[in-house]
Design a protein that fits this description.
Elements: H1 7-23, H2 38-53, H3 72-84, H4 93-105, H5 108-119, E1 127-130, E2 146-150, E3 153-161, E4 171-177, E5 188-194, E6 200-206, E7 212-225, E8 229-230, H6 236-248, H7 253-270, H8 272-277, H9 281-307, H10 314-338, H11 356-364, H12 374-385
Parallel strand pairs: 1-4
Antiparallel strand pairs: 2-3, 3-7, 4-5, 5-8, 6-7
Helix pairs in contact: 1-3, 3-7, 4-5, 4-6, 7-9, 7-10, 9-10, 10-11, 10-12
The structure holds flavin-adenine dinucleotide.
Flavin-adenine dinucleotide binds near residues 138 and 164.
């Protein structure tokens, strides 16, 4: 088996590397790769405009929707390099799942209105995902936000929670209940929600790493045009499930993990004191590097399926599960290497690696919850992957 990329793909990798050097600050730290902090968002928007000029935001999309119809392997090269260089996120919810979902089930008008905006990083094209509610997370089909038909519109009432990036989103990809009498999976519809609509309010939630990434979103008599229904009425659960497959197929995480372990290793070699104090961490590094190779193979399997036109399902869950749990093990190994030094805050001059180890230890906790918990991923692998009956 040969996992090497072809010469033209490696040449493209060099082009991407040069682009990042020109357009992103070389001092992008491990911390700045994280989440939706406002400072990172401003930088991301600017960076994405440069990407969009090259059609790199939607590299593998059909040309008619603003892509280059590049191969999924070329997309992988791009994603890997972006993650490794810690470029401001190359992708967003619009490019990763709203756009692909609209290509599958959107109306021609919805595609015309939104796909080009997403591909060109237009000013009003930032999306958030409105699924989870206080009483509906893993059991998402229990969601209670109501959309009631009234003339040419639906009237929306309810609440969402943990909505990443809602504080700067222009549009929301929203699941709401349209038939409360139907079995719970059959009464949900997907909507495109203009976040500027009267009656939408966004309230911040600060996580334990002191970052503002997600929010609560409330709807009070919000009017949504019927033209913004996506796909079939009351079949939203099935559209949402495919969008979740796209979300979990995010494939570049292992490349970013590799960079993190390499930086920890470089520090361990540079400053022998850390290894002297914590000798067993050598074996942990060996394990982490093996796991990164395994994870990369899981990601490459997803790309292989994409090249065959197959939407990865339990395979995406396996990669998501492995990647998120690995990010926690990597953060833990970092704390074992640094010991008490990992407690130093980023603003402390003595903090090794800019205080990123302690920070990533905190932020990695949420990685096994967002996008569906590890237990949910294991249930998917057990039932759809292994054919086991539901427990
Ligand atoms: C960083 C982050 C970003 C997020 N961004 C978004 C977003 O943009 N949009 C959005 O809609 N949501 C978002 N979420 C919400 C996320 O999808 C939910 O938190 C997640 O699905 C879990 O739901 P819950 O919090 O209600 O936990 P619960 O579903 O209440 O789960 C509690 C515990 O019970 C376990 N559990 C539940 N059911 C089962 C089962 N059947 N078998 C075994 N164990 C089970 C879970 O694994 C978990 O350990 C985000 C969450 C995080 C952490």
């Amino acid at each position: 088996m040969d996992f090497h990329f072809a010469p033209d793909q490696e040449a493209f990798r060099e082009e991407v590397r040069a682009f990042i050097e020109d357009h992103a600050s070389p001092a992008e730290s491990r911390r700045s790769g994280a989440g939706y902090a406002l400072r990172a968002h401003e930088r991301t928007l600017e960076f994405q405009k440069g990407m969009a000029e090259r059609k790199w935001l939607t590299l593998a999309w059909p040309q008619e929707y603003g892509g280059l119809e590049a191969s999924h392997w070329q997309q992988m090269v791009l994603n890997e390099e972006m993650a490794y260089q810690r470029a401001p996120s190359a992708q967003n919810m619009g490019t990763m799942w709203v756009g692909p979902a609209l290509m599958l089930v959107g109306t021609p008008e919805q595609r015309t209105e939104h796909l080009k905006n997403i591909a060109t990083a237009a000013d009003d094209s930032w999306w958030c995902t409105l699924y989870s509610e206080p009483g509906a997370g893993s059991d998402l089909a229990s969601l209670q936000t109501r959309a009631v038909a009234e003339g040419d519109e639906y009237v929306l009432n309810g609440q969402k929670i943990w909505t990443s990036g809602a504080h700067f989103a222009d549009w929301g990809w929203l699941a709401a209940r349209t038939d409360p009498d139907a079995p719970k999976h059959r009464g949900i519809t997907m909507f495109l929600l203009d976040m500027k609509s009267p009656g939408v309010s966004v309230r911040p939630l600060i996580n334990m790493g002191d970052e503002h990434g997600f929010n609560e979103v409330y709807f009070e008599d919000v009017r949504v045009p019927k033209a913004n229904v996506v796909g079939e009425l009351n079949r939203g659960w099935y559209h949402l499930a495919v969008a979740l497959d796209f979300e979990r197929s995010s494939i570049a995480g292992f490349s970013g993990s590799r960079r993190t372990v390499e930086e920890d290793l470089a520090l361990a070699k540079r400053d022998a004191g850390h290894l002297d104090r914590n000798p067993s961490v050598r074996r942990e590094f060996a394990d982490r590097m093996i796991e990164i190779e395994v994870g990369t193979a899981l990601a490459y399997r997803i790309v292989h399926l994409q090249t065959k036109g197959i939407i990865a399902n339990y395979e995406a869950s396996a990669a998501k599960l492995f990647s998120s749990e690995l990010s926690q093990r990597i953060a833990l190994t970092g704390t074992h290497l640094l010991g008490m030094y990992s407690l130093l805050r980023p603003e402390d001059d003595h903090a090794p690696l800019e205080g990123s180890v302690g920070q990533s230890y905190l932020s990695a906790v949420s990685s096994t919850i967002g996008g569906g918990t590890s237990e949910v991923q294991r249930n998917i692998i057990a039932t759809r992957g292994l054919g086991l009956p539901r427990g």
